[in-house]
Amino acid sequence: MRGAERQVIGVLTVPNWQPGMASEVLLAYRDILEVVADAPGPVRAKQIVPRIGLPAETGKIEGTRSKLKRLVERGWLDEDIPGMFTPARRRMAASPNFR
Fold it and tell me: Which terminus of the chain, N or C, has less C-beta within 10 A?
């Protein structure tokens, strides 16, 4: 089969957040979202990695940071200070128990 490229159609790993949407739709991202929600304040990727059961290695931290950025882009988290992640304010305003 010449030019066999992998095609993914209609799959969005992290959907854009909408009112009423729960973290269950996030699959692999749910643990990250829960750690951020349970933190007393803003958290960094390197603080999240051990809490989700990954070794604190550079590759795991960078991979987690990438996921955090994606969650920010899609409205699930905020990043007011670079590298510091918090639950999205508009989500909390829309649903006080967003987990």
Answer: N
Q: Are 99 and 88 in contact (CB under 8 A)?
A: no
- Tokens 């969005």 identify what position? 12
Q: Which two tokens stand for residue 62?
A: 């960078």
- CA dihedral for 99, 57, 74, 15, sign (positive or negative): negative
Other C-beta atoms within 10 Å of 68: how many? 24
Which residues lie closer than 8 Å to 55 by C-beta, 6 or more apart? 49
State the Cα–Cα distance between residues 45 and 52, nearest whole angstrom. Answer: 11
Enter the DSSP assignment of 43: B
Digit-by-digit pLDDT tens for the chain (99 residues) are 455 555 545 556 788 888 888 877 777 799 999 999 999 999 999 999 999 999 999 999 999 999 999 999 999 999 999 999 999 987 554 444 444
